[in-house]
Every structure is written in structure tokens, then in C-alpha cells.
Amino acid sequence: MKKHRKRYMKAVLCVVMALIMVLQPILPGVSGVLAAGALAPRDVDFSRPEKVKEIQKTEKPVTKPELRAPELEEKAPEPVGTLVDVDEFSKTYQKDATHFTTEVSTTPNTYKDASGKDQF
Predict the structure, then answer these.
(1) Do 82 and 100 meet the contact criterion of CB atoms below 8 Å apart?
(2) In whole angstroms, what is the distance from residue 93 CA to residue 84 CA?
(3) Contact 95, 101 (CB under 8 A)
């Protein structure tokens, strides 16, 4: 059943598409008639609208926003160990002979001086 329904729907779709292709040269004339109907004269009322009655205004006193202290972010504790290496976005600390900690940040740790060398 589904095969026959699917085949039937494909045939109907093909016929509709063929009709659209055949009627395409005729459609500009039809659309011109429809556009002419849209340009037909219409009755429009240009009389003066009713006067708007007094608008009630509710004035609130202007107050300044309440000042408050900025919220401070908790700063991460400094890693334990000695600072071994500083790159543009990371710092490496040495805890002991075999353990290292690297701290990565989004803000640069270095800057270029006048001679073009990286400084921290």
C-alpha cells in the first residue's frame, strides 16, 4: 500500500510541477489583472480624529542609585615553591627536585621593552 501511495504522490507532484512550467508564460498576464484590481479606488475617511483627552502623568522623584562596594574576586593562592620560568601567559614554580607547578593566566605576564626584549 505504501509503495502505491508513494508512487501516486510522486505522480501528482510531477503533474503539478509540469502545470506550473506550462502556465508560467501566462502568469504575468494574470498577475497584471490582479495588480490592476489592487489599484481600484477605495473609500478613505480623512476626517479629523477625536481630540486626545488629557494624559495623566505620574511623576516619580528622581533618586540616585544606592552606592555599594565592588565585589572582589577571591584570588588564587600563590603556588608553593620558587619561581623558575615566566612566559607570556604562564608561570612555572618548582616545589622540589621532581615536582613543578605551572600557573596559566589569560592576562600577559610579560611586556616588551624599548629594545624588543621580553620583560616581566
Answers:
(1) no
(2) 5
(3) yes
Residues 6+ apart with CB under 8 A from 99: 81
pLDDT band at 21 (very low <50, low <70, confident <90, very high): confident
The alpha carbons of the chain give a radius of gyration, in whole angstroms, of 39
Amino acid at site 50: E
pTM: 0.35
**How far apart are the C-alpha atoms of 7 and 56, rounded to whole Å?**
68
Alpha helices in the chain (DSSP H): 2-23, 27-38
Three-state secondary structure call for residue 99: coil
Helix (H, G, I), strand (E, B), or coil: what is residue 8? helix
